Amino acid sequence: MDEEAQMQTCHILDLPWEDVLVPHILCFLPLQHLVSLQRVSRQFHSLIQVYLANCRTFDLSSIGPSVPKEAFCSMLKDNKVLHSLCLSSCSEWVTDKELLPVIGQNQHLQRVDMSSCVGLTRHSLVAVSLSCLHLQHLGLAHCEWVDSLSLRSLADHCGGLQSINITACRQLKDDAICYMAKKCLKLRSLSLAVNANVTDESVEEVAKNCRGLEQLDLTGCLRVRNQSIRTLAEYCPKLQSLKVNHCHNVTESSLDPLRKRNVVIDVEPPLQRALVLLQDVLGFAPFINLQI
């Protein structure tokens, strides 16, 4: 009887690892749970290493600050099939030393997010541009180390780029952004926010070259004016979202045609803003016949 019961007992580790556990079970577990599983036993440690060597997505956004840099290097040392890599919460420890080997052996990466990784340098962006020729989505928000030469390298090698966030990359000026616009014609989403160097020249070049643009963030671009917004309206029929908050030289005269096309704009029309302010002062919204 005991022998029969033993034969019917099946442990999870008895299931085929690469055919069952890795593609159908472990892929649904959060990374922090996988890290915990490694500590259960040697077999579980080996299983998780097999998973990490074959995973297509590696996202540290939820546990990045608590991951030792040595653990990061160990987890990805055998992986050569990554499609997506997110390091947006790893600013406290990630440097070129940890990232460059991972980029070098993962040439199929399509999505990379290095936002706020202040410990990296332009060498990481150059490595991405040279190794990841199929890159489609790139996050570089608040990476002030991004400069003109590294962005040009990206544009030269990653022409299929569909979205890029270069918010607060304050070294970048019109020349680099215009160069990228001429090379990356498939751009659908672009953030140039919080960069006082951006002018109408950049916006117009993006509009004329990236005709499929759907989302554009110009928040805080103080030198952008109505002229480029009109060009945007003319050349980008697929535009869905435009952010121009704190762009004090952009007025309703250029935004109104976009509103009529149902483009979502992050600033209210002047009358709407006045009503909100009046409501704040009076405590209620007065009735105003808008058809007059």
UniProtKB/TrEMBL annotation:
Top-level taxon of origin: Eukaryota
Pathway: Protein modification; protein ubiquitination
Keywords: Cytoplasm, Leucine-rich repeat, Repeat, Ubl conjugation pathway
GO BP terms: SCF-dependent proteasomal ubiquitin-dependent protein catabolic process
Gene3D superfamilies per the UniProt record, alphabetical: Ribonuclease Inhibitor
Keyword Membrane: no
Pfam families, per database record: F-box (PF00646)
SMART domains with a match to the protein in the record: LRR_CC
Residue stretches spanning the membrane: none
A GO CC term assigned to this protein in UniProt: cytoplasm
Compartments it resides in: Cytoplasm
Signal peptide: none
Free-text function comment from the UniProt entry: Substrate recognition component of a SCF (SKP1-CUL1-F-box protein) E3 ubiquitin-protein ligase complex which mediates the ubiquitination and subsequent proteasomal degradation of target proteins. Acts as a positive regulator of the BMP signaling pathway. Required for dorsal/ventral pattern formation.
Assembly, per entry: Part of the SCF (SKP1-CUL1-F-box) E3 ubiquitin-protein ligase complex SCF(FBXL15).
Name this protein carries in UniProt: F-box/LRR-repeat protein 15
Organism: Champsocephalus esox (pike icefish)
